[in-house]
Amino acid sequence: MDDNNQPLRFTIEIFNVQFITTGRYFLILRIKGSKVNRSKLKLFVGNSKVPLDDHEYTTDTCLEDGDPETLATFTDSVISFWMPPESADGDIQLVVEVFRLPENPMHEGDKYGEAVFDVFPRRGALFSAVRQAMPSTKDSNELYKFETNITLSQVQEGEGFWTSCGAIMAAVQLKYEEPEQKKPDKKPQPRPVARNPQPGPSTARDTPMGIKTIQESALASHVSSITCASPVWELHSKGRTL
Q1: According to the UniProt entry, which residue ranges have a biased composition of type Basic and acidic residues (predicted)?
Q2: Interatomic CA distance for residues 70 and 33, integer angstroms
């Protein structure tokens, strides 16, 4: 893959499911692959942009009433798997397991069948059963998008072979995703640096008026005493001169 440095997003939209026997069923969908790290997978349901904290998805329960004209559907039918870039270095598969609930709610459900869909790479021979009902897309990041029937199979106990037990009608899409943008680290804010005093107006706080008046009053009396003492000094000085 030329763009294996980009994440992948695989989306399946389940239109309906048909089973060959009546009962209540649910599906479990998961992605697996030789280079798929499931701890890094992100699972999205519907149009939600918030991923679920899980690597697999379990649908709600649907009812198959045995009428061939009735097709089972699920409430949440669109499931997307986001995969990191290194996933495309190996094969990627979608595994769908089907479980049938017993009539007695006290009993556990039994595995009814399963299907494996090759997500990547897609080989030409595998497209023979594909219904190309989707219009072509101009999305350059899209690898493929089409509708298909995914066959469900079950193993016959003691027989050693698999038989068909139903089919999933779905649309599938695989596309490149834009790489996730890392949030920039917050740079520490520089501490203010004390500047050297520069020529100009003083930034010192002014002396309050009350204190200034007292200081000026005290200074005036002191100056007055010095002024009054001056003639005495001059008199003594003149006396010594005489």
Answers
A1: 176-188
A2: 35
Those residues with Cβ within 8 angstroms of residue 206's Cβ, 6 or more apart along the chain or in another chain = none
195-211: pLDDT as tens digits: 555 555 555 555 555 54
- Indicate the pTM of the whole model: 0.68
* b (16+ CB within 10 A) / e for 117-133: bebbebeeeeeeeeeee
C-alpha pair distances (Å), 221 with each of 141, 204, 216:
94, 27, 9
Residues 115, 121, 124, 130: is their CA dihedral positive or negative?
positive
- Going by the DSSP 8-state scheme, the letter that residue 202 receives in this structure is -
- Tokens in use for 142? 């899209």
**Residue 241 region, left (φ>0) first, then alpha (ψ -120 to 50), else beta?**
alpha
Report the C-alpha dihedral over residues 81, 82, 88, 94, rounded to 10 degrees: -10
β-bridge pairing 110-120 and 42-45? unpaired
Parallel/antiparallel/unpaired status of strands 23-33 and 62-64: antiparallel
The amino acid present at 19, given as its one-letter code, is: F
Measured distance CA(15)–CA(174) in Å, rounded: 17
